[in-house]
Specification:
Elements lengths: L16 E5 L2 E4 L10 E5 L3 E5 L5 H15 L3 E5 L5 H4 L10 E5 H19 L3 H6 L10 E3 L3 E5 L4 E5 L11 E4 L4 E5 L22 H13 L4 E4 L8 H22 L4 H15 L7 H14 L1
Parallel strand pairs: 4-5, 5-6, 6-7, 11-12
Antiparallel strand pairs: 1-2, 2-3, 3-4, 8-9, 9-10, 10-11
Helix pairs in contact: 5-6, 6-7, 6-8, 7-8
The structure holds zinc ion.
Length: 298
Amino acid sequence: MTDQAAPPAPDVDTSAIREIAKGVFVITDRRVPLVPNIGIVLGETSALVIDTGMGNANGKAVLEAAKKLADDRNLILTLTHFHPEHGYGADAFKSVARIIYNKAQADELADKGQPYLDMFKGMGPTVAEALADTTLVAADELYDGAEHILDLGGRTAVLKTWGKAHTRGDQVVYLPDCRVLFTGDLAEERTFPIFPWFPPDDMDIDGANWIEVLDDCLALAPEIVVPGHGDIDGGAILTDVRDYIADVAALVKKAAIAGKSKDEMIAELGPAIRAAHPDWHFPEWIDFAIRYFHAQQA
Ligand SMILES: [Zn+2]
């Protein structure tokens, strides 16, 4: 007997690791829901880990994989954003790695960390089990402002933030020497962008800024883009997400001018948007995007 509604366990598989550029490793998500792409970047003196997976067991597995690669390098952990599947394994790194968040991300975690933990635990037994012993972890170091440069020894990692887009504290990590960009959920590959529009509990999305962020990321001309979820590819990932967001915004605006209600927009636009992206995953996020842009019309 199979239960098709039950999601698979959100387990990070550290054997699914690939070196995508010299000293740049990704533990790939294998397209498992609620598993992110996780980065491990080696400099001469430090190793930077980007995201942890969800829950303490995943965090520990990522830490072990990072230690193996890092050898005697100092460990640094940073997160692309506060969402549970990206950062709720950080507990395993506490006092082992130097943990760095941007200020907005730290504030958002302080505000929403527990509610999101409760919400995710309600998503099914496998997710609840993964999160069972989760402790939310504060950073050892915060940065304010648009950019923070980490010297890993012989290579730098640039942490960049533009404020509110997919969340309040989204951050990308750019490696100028090999032009690799880690985007978190600002860009997912062949996946409908997640608009976490849960009014009144969470309304921290800025679609217009999100488009600007992706334009700025494209201006970096990255050769390799590591999306929050999905396959690793080039800048086309950024263009696809940017165009999707701009298209949905334009369609909703047009429908609003034509006097359509929110429910009419969902009924009419939803299937057309789905059909325009037949190979994209998680179409349930389309309606969230429509509802978000509808709310911006008021
Ligand atoms: Zn996210």
